[in-house]
Every structure is written in C-alpha cells, then in structure tokens.
Amino acid sequence: MKLFYIFYNQERWDNWINTLNESDFQIDPESEEMPEGFRTLYNFSMDITLAVLKVIKLFQNERFTKEETMDKLNDVEAIVMSDIPYPEIEEYVESLQLSMLVLFKSCRKYLEGEYSSDIKTLVKEGKKIIDDDMEKALEIGADIGASVINGASCCGKYVKDNIESPTLFDEWLIEIESMKEAMASLKNFDEVAGES
User: Fold this and answer.
1) Fewer CB within 10 Å, N- or C-terminus of the chain?
2) d(CA 180, CA 23)
3) Where do the domains of the chain lie?
C-alpha cells in the first residue's frame, strides 16, 4: 500500500520566492540580528532540503522504487533550478541554487549506490580542486552527501576554518551538514501520512 504525500510543487516555490522578494536584506549596523532576508533564505533552503530528503526516506522505507524516486527528484529539481522572476533577489536565489546542486547530486549517487565514503580524504580533495574543476568538486561533494544520507557524519568541523570567506565547496559542505540534520529529523517520517 502506498500512502499519499504532498510533495514539493511550483506553488510552494512561488510562495517562498514572493516572501523572499518582500524581505529586507539590509544589514543594520546597530543590530546583531541577521537581516530578515537572510533568515528567510536559510528557511527556504531547509524547506527544500527536507522536502527532497523525504523522497529519499520513502525510498529507504520501500514506498518508492528507485525509478519513482528519480522521477520525483527530477520534478523537484526542475522547480528549484527554474528562472527567478525578480532581478532584485536573483543573486540570493542563485546562491541557494548553487548550494542545492550537491543535494540533488548526492541523492542520485545514493540511489545508484556507487560512491566513496572516505570523507576526510574527499573533503581534502574537494577543497583543493574547487577553483580549478567545479564539476569534479561537485562529484566529490556528492560522494560525501551520499555517505551522509547513508548515515555517515559530516561536515561541521570541516567548514570552521573558512567561515568568513567560504568557497563553493565549503557551501556544499554546509548544505551536507543541513542534510545530516534533516535526515535525523526525518527518522520517523514514514509513520505519518499526508506530510509535505
């Protein structure tokens, strides 16, 4: 028997984009709080990460076949990587889209079952080549992400050094850390029907 779940859709994406467009990204020098726009962007990112990993969780629980899971991932990715209607927030959403590359790639690697799990070596290699070969660095990041989906630990300790000026690979490690948190929060996800 298959349960009915509401998955990530265009309306959900559009709602986040509209909220982001109305948010203020201006930094107040007198306030220690992160500007509203950046808080919204973080929540936007976590919403996507959770939605995507719910699909993976359902695969793990044998609710979906590999092919069905790939189809669902493709559907969500097409929405997340779509064009931005508001030039004012384009750079913020594009940075989110770049970090999401590792989420989708990790999920596909996990489903295929072919990835390296030597995280320490992978992190070192990825940091070394990110400026010269983004595609290869993404493959390496996806190996780490697939390992995390499968239960490995990563990546907080590897991003502390570059927190002030992170590379794209560091951004991917931060996303993979979010993936780890999301997988932990989804431990009992399959027990509740109708979740989004």
Assistant:
1) N
2) 28
3) 10-188
| Single-letter amino acid, residue 34 | M
**pLDDT tens by residue, 31-67:** 888 889 999 999 999 999 999 999 999 999 998 999 9
Cα–Cα distance measured from residue 154 to residue 14, given in angstroms and rounded to the nearest whole number: 31
Q: Is 33 exposed, middle or buried (0-12, 13-18, 19+ CB in 10 A)?
A: exposed
E strand or H helix at 78: helix 66-80
Question: For tokens 């950046």, what's the residue?
Answer: 38
> Of 119, 139, 118, 121, whose CA–CA distance to 130 is shortest?
139
pTM exceeds 0.85 for this model: yes
Cα–Cα distance for residue pair 177/174, rounded to 1 Å: 5
